[in-house]
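@channel anyone free to eyeball this complex?
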Amino acid sequence: MSLLKAKSSRTREKRLDTLNAWQGNVSAAVTEFSDGEPVKRIRTFSQSTQDDLLYALRLLAGIRNSVAVIHASRGCAAAGLFHQVSKGNGRWIVTNLDDRDTIMGADLKLRKAVKEVYLRYKPEVIFIVSSPIVAINNDDIQSVVEELHEELELDIVPIYVTGFASHHAVTGYDTTLHALLKYLAGRRGEHNKNNSVNLLSVAEHPDDLREVERLLSALGLELNILPDGASPAIFRKAAAARLSLSLDQDTGNYLGITLRDEYAVPYAEASRPIGINATGRWLAVAGKASGLNEAVQALHEQESGRVTKALENFSLKGVRVYLGLASATSFSVLGLVEELGGEVIGITVSRLDQLHKERLEELSARYPVLQIHVADGQPFEEANIIKRLSPDLYLGDSAHLGQIGRLGIPVVSLEETPVLGYNGVIALARRFSAALHNRTFGAALARTPLPYKESWFRRSPNWHIKKEVK
Amino acid sequence: MAHHIEGSRNSCALHGALQVIEAIEGVVPVIHSTAGCGVQHFLGVNRLNAGSDRFGGPPVSNSNISEKHVVFGGSSRLREQLKNTVKIVEGDLYVIVTGCSTEMVGDDIPAMTKEGRDQDFQVIYANTPGFRGDVHQGYQLAVKALIEQLPALGKGEQSSVEGLVNIWGIVPHQDPFWAGNLEEIGRLLEGIGLKPNLLFGYDQGLSSWNRVPNAALNIVVSVWGDSPAMLLEERYGTPVLKLEGLPVGSAAGRFLQTVSDRLNLDLTHTENFIKSEEKRLNTYLASLADTYYRAGFQREFAFVGESSQVAGLSEFLTGTLGLIPRTLIITDNPPEYAREALLSRLTGLVEGYSTEVVFSEDHAEIIDQVRSGAAELVLGSALEEQVALALGVPFLQLSFPLSDKVVLSRGYSGYRGAAALLEDLGSAILSN
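replying in thread with the prediction:
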């Protein structure tokens, strides 16, 4: 049966046994994922975190010639304002559900909004984004989609996010990618194969995309970059491509395997190209899959020589580093820190699941006691851990670096810093070097206390992580 | 029935309540809702106001309810979250605020609050689902909760404070310059011998809020301050003074005169204070004259912002600086009763010139209005930058959301704010 028949993707916890609350060492993590399905944990105290709706909005803001109709109360669109203002793209409207709509439903309002936005902008595609209110009320979005698709002769794509059905925000990427393929890529068997290669990029920095494009075009590959920055037509083209390459297994995996299983596009996945060696390995996987082994080898030698020269004698020797990053990024940055001579003494990852099992096994062989903390946006736990470890440098991509900084340690944000490829190494080394050369800002921040009570730091960091009672 | 909106800048009631709570020292919000509500607020409000982050990240306590709680109710999850928040997060007061999902499910928030109180937690609540309104309603709901529920915690100060005045209606973060605006109003009131109760910002904690009932006067700077002032008038009989907008430049002088009148202050002292402030501003104006003429400051302008800001700043720009108000767009959805007064005031700013005044928060409509107005200067938010660029005219970001500014203490109210406005407006014109 076609994967895309389903209304939506399965949640990450169901599909990949994903955990979002866990703490222990690497070898325990390996055991956790080896003995069948790991036991789910919950938190008895929690802090604000991303949800699937937020990830859907982020992804949709990158689709060209589209408008998102956010079928929600007003605040669910706040992140839309952020993407619009900070990235300059992503047109959106919110249906502004009020008291009455929560009781009576709001199908009419949705219909009206879609029609008006169509008449005003004539986009190539309109997204209808669901929300907690709509999910609780079970409002019928599907018939609006079907009727208006006929009436307006327009692709209308429903994105069934809920804000509560999954503990993992990344489910929102899967939900969105499922819908994009289901409604925009066409039926299997109806495509004529083309010679292009899909580069799966969900949430990369623009400079990172440029870097990877530079490397792949040096190999002469013709690329479809999706979903970020793609026009709706790219999804159809992608279904007929000769290969998909992922830049980030955490975010791109669902798109890759669905293109593979539904449209028979081979899918190649490697660790994120962060650091000289990982970039070489990533390119080797790309080269192997596209029959360009030799060209890749030559390119890697040339580029790694250039990077080594550019780094001069920069080294992280003797520097103890803590990582607080999205999972796949974390594992790859760990490799980069090692390459530069530094030592990773602990990591916080946003989630752990079956996708990470292989990396955990590798790590476990080398550092069985390395501490792993699994949390998305739980700085109270992270601060507790970091206070105990007192690292020399913190690398993170979360929204709570302002709290980590108050611990007085140098912080480098990877949220809006290019990290990929050979140029990523040079850019990162420069940031690391600056952070270690001048630590005054951290010292100044340390004069402002963290928002937590002293007694919390005497508790173990995983005090509030409990096994779920079903 | 509420209409759909393109590119709304007014977020929701929960976010407005968070803005209130985060602006009071020692007060901690406990969000009872789905996980993303706090991050929505952080991305869509804090990050579009660089320099507005008290906790160093998204909200520090959120019950993150899941499907189970939607189906079976989330009260027990809230009980657990509240108990642990009090143990972990430093605070003098904890405020439970709710989102759409927990309100639809019908969790009994007052009962959970009472349970907390029975355990001696300093806790109050406000029902603030996003479907109940925008940030301005959220401001009102949170302020109302504080006014009504704080006395029951028994920490109110009984001794009255001579010359205490509360200031209402400046919505933290929604006015990106809220802290600076409040501080300048406070400085001016101090200048005439009063004790301003700013209630939000640096050094404003529960003790300020416990003093609220003892004030001699409630000053209302925007229409959003009406409801707290009315509530306090009802409860404590405190008189109210409503301003027609943020007082900027000479309007601040008139404001001080009115306050002095109402509170029977020493008028000579007030006059002397105003005189010295006026003198400084006049010196600045004179220093600017060459640049003003050379760079052609006197232009038709479009202004997109909240009612109190548009009214107050436009009054200064037209009443002192000689600018011409082409298109004024009010984005905060003031209630009907306030619109007529605003309309007649704003259309009559420059006699014999017809000013277009529009009430809208719809991005598409706003852009159309600014474009068709074809002003020679655009003042607004980051959302108006493109249209200003297309018109090829100077542009200054001064309303929410901001993308090119860090705001910590800057403000545009009073006399110092008038000088800041001259600097920023002048810089925008010169750099165009």
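from a first look: Chain B touches chain A through 70 residues (CB under 8 Å).
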